[in-house]
Amino acid sequence: MKRRPTKLSWLPAPIGSKTIPPSRLKARRLTTSEATHQTPPEPEDAVDNERGPERRCIVTRAQGRPQRMIRFVVGPDRQIVPDLAGRLPGRGMWLSARPDVLETARRRGAFARAARQQVAVPDDILQIVLDGLARRRNEALGLLRRSGQVVAGFVKAREWVVNGRAALVVQAADGSPDERGRLLSGARQLPVVEISGAAELGALFGRDHVVHAAVAHGALAQRLLNDNERFLELSGRAVPVRQPNAPDEGEQAGT
């Protein structure tokens, strides 16, 4: 009976012999059983979707511009934290700026699925986001004031509106409706940021009260407008859609 050669008894391949490179080796076809037990792809909720011009909501799956959505991250204590500036480190989880979407994410564990870990979501997460957006609006107005990109008072604000320097106007909600309307006469297309009261708006300008202000074009004006739109949507109020250079209802632009 011949003895079967062992691995140690194999002779080395002669010099100059051809070997098949790994790139030419054919892959073995998987059996049905093996294919069934392959590791499934990572769920889409767990993918850190923060590239490109749009973000995907982890609840509705709808895509939108990040300026109109809310980003959340997991804090050091595993608590969900709103990242309104979009700069905090960590895996970003994006939500459409709607109160029903935020409530659905809180109740149905959407944050935990997207973060792939257990997280704590504050019961008043909606109010936390609204308060944060209100602070950002006030901070933007403070920066605009210090940089000379905003004027307060009806006369100065009206002058900016007429000569086209105003990108948007800021008005106190408790101001005279007629006077607020006259400020925008012939320029109803301008966006309006509404602050709750003249005393609150005045405090931002170091005055007792301010009803009207006009903001110049620029990055700060766009930031203020974006934060205001998110604030309105999360408050359940409609964001007015204004067409540039559209004439007022019942009047012609420029009259």
From TrEMBL:
Domain YlxR, first and last residues per copy: 55-127
Record-annotated Ribosomal protein eL8/eL30/eS12/Gadd45 domain positions: 138-213
SUPFAM superfamilies xref list: L30e-like, YlxR-like
Chain positions covered by the region annotation Disordered: 1-51
Domain of life from the UniProt record: Bacteria
Biased composition (Polar residues): 30-39
Alphabetical list of InterPro entries matching this protein: Ribosomal_eL30-like_sf (IPR029064), Ribosomal_eL8/eL30/eS12/Gad45 (IPR004038), YlxR (IPR037465), YlxR-like_sf (IPR035931), YlxR_dom (IPR007393)
Record Pfam families: Ribosomal_L7Ae, YlxR
PANTHER family, sorted: BLL0784 PROTEIN (PTHR34215), YLXR DOMAIN-CONTAINING PROTEIN (PTHR34215:SF1)
Protein name from the UniProt record: RNA-binding protein
Organism ancestry: Bacteria, Pseudomonadati, Pseudomonadota, Alphaproteobacteria, Acetobacterales
